[in-house]
Specification:
The protein is α/β, with parallel strands linked by helices. It is 47% helix and 15% strand. It has a domain of 103 residues: Rossmann fold, CATH 3.40.50.
Protein backbone atom coordinates (compact mmCIF):
# COMPACT_ATOMS: atom_id res chain seq x y z
CA UNK A 1 0.00 0.00 0.00
CA UNK A 2 2.83 2.38 0.83
CA UNK A 3 4.45 1.80 -2.56
CA UNK A 4 1.15 2.58 -4.33
CA UNK A 5 0.75 5.76 -2.33
CA UNK A 6 4.31 6.83 -3.13
CA UNK A 7 3.78 6.10 -6.81
CA UNK A 8 0.57 8.11 -6.83
CA UNK A 9 2.21 11.05 -5.06
CA UNK A 10 5.13 10.94 -7.49
CA UNK A 11 2.76 10.94 -10.45
CA UNK A 12 0.86 13.94 -9.05
CA UNK A 13 4.12 15.80 -8.43
CA UNK A 14 5.28 15.15 -12.00
CA UNK A 15 1.97 16.43 -13.39
CA UNK A 16 2.16 19.56 -11.24
CA UNK A 17 5.71 20.25 -12.36
CA UNK A 18 4.75 19.71 -15.98
CA UNK A 19 1.88 22.17 -15.60
CA UNK A 20 4.18 24.76 -14.04
CA UNK A 21 6.76 24.37 -16.80
CA UNK A 22 4.71 26.31 -19.34
CA UNK A 23 6.54 28.81 -21.47
CA UNK A 24 5.97 32.21 -19.83
CA UNK A 25 6.70 33.97 -23.12
CA UNK A 26 3.74 32.37 -24.89
CA UNK A 27 1.52 35.27 -25.96
CA UNK A 28 -2.10 35.27 -24.91
CA UNK A 29 -4.32 35.58 -27.96
CA UNK A 30 -7.44 37.63 -27.32
CA UNK A 31 -10.37 36.79 -29.54
CA UNK A 32 -12.22 39.70 -31.14
CA UNK A 33 -15.58 40.63 -29.64
CA UNK A 34 -18.66 38.94 -31.05
CA UNK A 35 -20.84 41.42 -32.96
CA UNK A 36 -24.41 42.00 -31.83
CA UNK A 37 -26.83 39.90 -33.88
CA UNK A 38 -29.77 41.42 -35.68
CA UNK A 39 -33.26 41.42 -34.24
CA UNK A 40 -34.26 38.46 -36.38
CA UNK A 41 -31.17 36.34 -35.71
CA UNK A 42 -31.60 33.03 -33.96
CA UNK A 43 -31.35 32.43 -30.24
CA UNK A 44 -27.93 30.78 -30.56
CA UNK A 45 -26.46 33.94 -32.13
CA UNK A 46 -27.82 35.97 -29.22
CA UNK A 47 -26.57 33.45 -26.68
CA UNK A 48 -23.06 33.59 -28.18
CA UNK A 49 -23.09 37.39 -28.21
CA UNK A 50 -24.34 37.73 -24.63
CA UNK A 51 -21.89 35.13 -23.35
CA UNK A 52 -19.03 37.06 -24.94
CA UNK A 53 -20.21 40.42 -23.57
CA UNK A 54 -20.62 39.08 -20.05
CA UNK A 55 -17.27 37.27 -20.16
CA UNK A 56 -15.54 40.53 -21.12
CA UNK A 57 -17.39 42.85 -18.74
CA UNK A 58 -18.45 40.96 -15.62
CA UNK A 59 -16.54 41.67 -12.42
CA UNK A 60 -14.26 38.89 -11.19
CA UNK A 61 -16.21 38.34 -7.98
CA UNK A 62 -19.52 37.43 -9.65
CA UNK A 63 -20.82 34.17 -8.25
CA UNK A 64 -24.05 33.72 -10.22
CA UNK A 65 -25.59 35.30 -13.31
CA UNK A 66 -29.24 35.74 -14.25
CA UNK A 67 -30.11 36.77 -17.78
CA UNK A 68 -33.32 38.65 -18.51
CA UNK A 69 -33.62 38.68 -22.29
CA UNK A 70 -36.52 40.16 -24.22
CA UNK A 71 -37.01 39.07 -27.84
CA UNK A 72 -37.83 41.50 -30.64
CA UNK A 73 -41.26 43.10 -30.32
CA UNK A 74 -42.49 41.47 -33.53
CA UNK A 75 -42.11 38.04 -31.92
CA UNK A 76 -45.41 36.19 -31.64
CA UNK A 77 -46.91 36.68 -28.18
CA UNK A 78 -44.42 39.42 -27.34
CA UNK A 79 -46.67 41.30 -24.92
CA UNK A 80 -47.21 38.13 -22.87
CA UNK A 81 -43.46 37.45 -22.91
CA UNK A 82 -42.77 41.01 -21.78
CA UNK A 83 -45.35 40.82 -18.98
CA UNK A 84 -44.00 37.48 -17.71
CA UNK A 85 -40.43 38.71 -17.82
CA UNK A 86 -41.33 41.93 -15.99
CA UNK A 87 -43.12 39.89 -13.32
CA UNK A 88 -40.09 37.58 -13.01
CA UNK A 89 -37.76 40.55 -12.57
CA UNK A 90 -40.01 42.25 -10.03
CA UNK A 91 -40.34 39.05 -8.01
CA UNK A 92 -36.59 38.45 -8.04
CA UNK A 93 -35.79 42.03 -7.05
CA UNK A 94 -38.22 42.07 -4.16
CA UNK A 95 -36.65 38.91 -2.74
CA UNK A 96 -33.24 38.96 -1.20
CA UNK A 97 -30.57 38.70 -3.89
CA UNK A 98 -27.22 37.71 -2.42
CA UNK A 99 -24.14 39.84 -3.06
CA UNK A 100 -22.07 38.68 -6.01
CA UNK A 101 -25.06 38.01 -8.24
CA UNK A 102 -25.12 39.62 -11.69
CA UNK A 103 -28.46 40.46 -13.30
CA UNK A 104 -28.11 40.92 -17.07
CA UNK A 105 -30.71 42.78 -19.14
CA UNK A 106 -30.66 42.70 -22.93
CA UNK A 107 -32.84 42.69 -26.02
CA UNK A 108 -32.60 43.26 -29.77
CA UNK A 109 -34.63 46.35 -28.84
CA UNK A 110 -32.61 47.62 -25.88
CA UNK A 111 -35.05 50.43 -25.15
CA UNK A 112 -37.64 47.84 -24.16
CA UNK A 113 -35.18 46.14 -21.80
CA UNK A 114 -34.47 49.56 -20.28
CA UNK A 115 -38.21 50.21 -19.90
CA UNK A 116 -38.57 46.92 -18.06
CA UNK A 117 -35.65 47.75 -15.78
CA UNK A 118 -37.00 51.18 -14.85
CA UNK A 119 -40.44 49.71 -14.08
CA UNK A 120 -39.04 46.91 -11.96
CA UNK A 121 -36.35 48.84 -10.07
CA UNK A 122 -38.77 51.60 -9.06
CA UNK A 123 -40.46 49.04 -6.77
CA UNK A 124 -37.26 48.05 -4.95
CA UNK A 125 -36.47 49.65 -1.58
CA UNK A 126 -33.38 51.83 -1.37
CA UNK A 127 -30.12 50.12 -0.44
CA UNK A 128 -31.71 46.66 -0.53
CA UNK A 129 -29.30 45.18 -3.10
CA UNK A 130 -25.78 45.89 -1.82
CA UNK A 131 -23.10 43.84 -3.56
CA UNK A 132 -25.41 42.93 -6.45
CA UNK A 133 -24.35 43.78 -10.00
CA UNK A 134 -26.82 44.87 -12.67
CA UNK A 135 -25.73 44.97 -16.31
CA UNK A 136 -27.59 46.60 -19.17
CA UNK A 137 -26.41 45.72 -22.65
CA UNK A 138 -27.98 48.47 -24.70
CA UNK A 139 -27.89 51.95 -26.17
CA UNK A 140 -26.14 54.90 -24.52
CA UNK A 141 -29.47 56.78 -24.59
CA UNK A 142 -30.86 54.32 -22.05
CA UNK A 143 -27.91 54.34 -19.67
CA UNK A 144 -28.80 57.47 -17.67
CA UNK A 145 -32.48 56.65 -17.18
CA UNK A 146 -31.68 53.15 -15.90
CA UNK A 147 -28.61 53.99 -13.82
CA UNK A 148 -30.47 56.11 -11.25
CA UNK A 149 -33.16 53.59 -10.26
CA UNK A 150 -30.60 50.76 -10.16
CA UNK A 151 -28.05 52.60 -8.03
CA UNK A 152 -30.72 53.73 -5.56
CA UNK A 153 -31.11 50.07 -4.62
CA UNK A 154 -27.44 49.87 -3.66
CA UNK A 155 -26.63 47.66 -6.65
CA UNK A 156 -23.63 48.40 -8.84
CA UNK A 157 -24.70 49.37 -12.36
CA UNK A 158 -22.66 48.19 -15.35
CA UNK A 159 -23.47 49.54 -18.79
CA UNK A 160 -22.18 47.87 -21.94
CA UNK A 161 -22.96 49.45 -25.27
CA UNK A 162 -24.49 47.01 -27.73
CA UNK A 163 -22.17 46.80 -30.71
Amino acid sequence: MTLSLRTLMLAVAVMLLAACNRDADTPVVETPPVAAPGAQDDQMAWRNYLTDVVRRNAPDDVTQTYNYFLPASDTEGYEQVYSRQLENVETALLRTIPPGNLLIFSSPEPGRAADMMVSAFELVPQNSLPGVYVMLIGNPDDEARVKGPVEETGARFIFVEMK
